[in-house]
Design goal:
With 208 residues, the chain is mainly α. The chain has six helices and no strands. 75% of the residues lie in helices and 0% in strands. The N and C termini lie far apart (46 Å). Mean pLDDT is 77; it is low at 1-5, 8-17 and 41-49.
């Protein structure tokens, strides 16, 4: 005899699975977006302006905020920040492609404001990801919180180097910052994708 679940239990089971898949997809987008946040193709094309991809990070992560906000309401507050940061960095990129140069002194204050907003955005976003992950894997949630603290330091360093300008900094500093960004991106990617995989019933990777 085959046991048949009551309609209510079927509905609850479907909703739970649908929620897991939605959150898993949202966290996957968060991780994918960070690739474009920490990767800067500066100098690889051999031409100006720099091929910065930070605006793509916010464009990719924006759809994830809606799903995350269903579990973490504070994630909804990040939407306006994401739109502002997306508009700012996309505008800079568009001006660069058009060959329009804006004096550095005019960009300094907007750059400082954008840097502060970005620090808060990424700190809170990883906080929300960790809170969601805690319902599935407390160990990985703790790892995300540790990575979040490291990201605050790294992102602050990246903001300072961008505001000062590569022409002022020694080449070794810029190289070290680029290497640290790549290593951090790998660690963050392992954790985020591990959480997304665990939400679908897998085990997923960790970092320790």
């Amino acid at each position: 005899n085959m046991s048949v679940l009551p309609p209510r239990e079927k509905s609850e089971k479907y909703l739970a699975r649908h929620t897991d898949e939605t959150l898993s997809r949202a966290i996957w987008l968060v991780g994918f977006g960070y690739i474009f946040y920490y990767v800067n193709l500066r100098g690889l094309t051999g031409s100006a302006p720099d091929v910065t991809t930070e605006w793509l990070c916010y464009a990719i992560q924006l759809p994830a905020l809606g799903a995350l906000s269903r579990s973490e309401r504070s994630a909804a507050l990040l939407k306006p920040l994401a739109w502002l940061l997306l508009a700012y960095h996309a505008a800079l990129r568009a001006l660069g492609l058009l060959g329009i140069e804006i004096p550095a002194e005019y960009l300094y204050l907007p750059g400082c404001i954008a840097a502060v907003l970005a620090l808060y955005f990424h700190f809170q976003l990883l906080t929300n990801v960790a809170a969601v992950a805690a319902d599935y894997d407390k160990s990985r949630a703790g790892q995300i919180l540790n990575v979040r603290s490291v990201s605050l330091v790294l992102n602050s360093l990246l903001s300072v180097t961008q505001l000062i300008g590569p022409e002022v900094l020694p080449g070794a500093v810029e190289t070290a910052t680029a290497i640290a960004s790549c290593l951090f991106m790998v660690v963050l990617g392992i954790l985020v994708y591990g959480i997304a995989y665990a939400m679908r019933g897998g085990t997923g990777p960790g970092i320790y």
